[in-house]
TrEMBL record, chains A, B:
Keyword Nucleotidyltransferase: no
Protein origin, superkingdom: Bacteria
Protein name: TetR family transcriptional regulator
DNA-binding region ranges: 18-37
Taxonomic source organism: Microbispora bryophytorum
This protein's UniProt keywords: DNA-binding, Transcription, Transcription regulation
Lineage: Bacteria, Bacillati, Actinomycetota, Actinomycetes, Streptosporangiales
Length: 185, 185
């Protein structure tokens, strides 16, 4: 069933996704689809929740910059994949409240799992104790999302690595120290 | 006319925006609206192009971090304003190709105008010659867009300043040097 949603979404985007087309593709009875999922938003929320229900772990390359670069390459590849399923799910989150909530749950879970990248860097003494893991992870990944999802500039092969390097340099310079240094408002 | 589009967009969002409602609110004849703008995407593209046709200049506070923080506060305020016109225009850019192109023109123009922030910092010897202005500006602003537009986490008052400080620290550490240092892929 969820495969049918993904296939329809990849082929037609959110605007072409209907309960009827999903029912037809999956072979599940139309009435069952409506009873169980209610509307397209319900289907998308289930797809997103299922995507998060996996054993994914962030890369473990032995260095902070390496981990962040590998993570950014995964994000880059997901956002530029064909068919554009991840991009279509993000676009759908602007349309459906259920998809919005599910997309936010998925991101929250992914960022939480990624915090181990920062813990390992602290254990290796690459970073000071008390580094704000979430802020560092958002700084590292945000340029990839911003360029590919909002600015929609052509993806450069350097983007994942450059964003990782920028965040790692800033982290070494104390940008994510907790509590923030004086002068940081 | 464009005021009517903004008012409708702020009140109803993209899904509630129709040629007829804009015609009714503006007092322009329906047939004229259709002839001149074609569809809602055409209206939104005109709104976005008009928004960029102004004398806006980036903040000039005397320091790189100050300029970036002030810029981020402007972005933060625009993205969290009520009615949520900027947010609605960004959401619309996922739906309409014309709005997408116009939104990208607007961002391109704004980032180009902001490059003077980096030039001034180079002139003050805050940054080395050959700093990649665009990459620095994207790194500084991306966390604000990412958190407010995609992650939709509650905006913290520290977000604009922290993102500015992170980018300024990374810039001082050579993250945006051109050509990139060895090891940057």
């Amino acid at each position: 069933m969820l495969d049918a949603v993904l296939a329809e979404l990849g082929e037609r985007g959110y605007d072409g996704l209907t309960m009827d087309s999903v029912a037809a593709r999956s072979g599940v009875h139309r009435a069952t689809v409506y009873r169980r999922w209610g509307d397209v938003g319900g289907l998308l929320a289930d797809v997103l929740d299922a995507a998060g229900d996996d054993a994914w772990q962030p890369p473990d390359t032995g260095s902070l910059e390496g981990d962040l670069a590998a993570l950014n390459r995964e994000i880059h590849d997901a956002l530029t994949a064909q068919p554009p399923i991840v991009a279509a799910l993000i676009a759908a989150s602007f349309r459906s409240e259920q998809a919005d909530h599910a997309q936010r749950r998925l991101w929250e879970d992914r960022y939480a799992r990624c915090e181990v990248i920062v813990r390992r860097a602290v254990e290796r003494a690459e970073l000071p104790l008390g580094t704000d893991a979430r802020r560092l992870l958002i700084a590292a990944t945000a340029p990839v999302y911003h360029q590919l999802v909002l600015l929609r500039t052509p993806p450069g092969p350097d983007l994942p690595g450059q964003a990782a390097r920028t965040a790692a340099l800033a982290a070494s310079a104390g940008a994510f120290a907790v509590p923030p240094p004086a002068g940081d408002t």
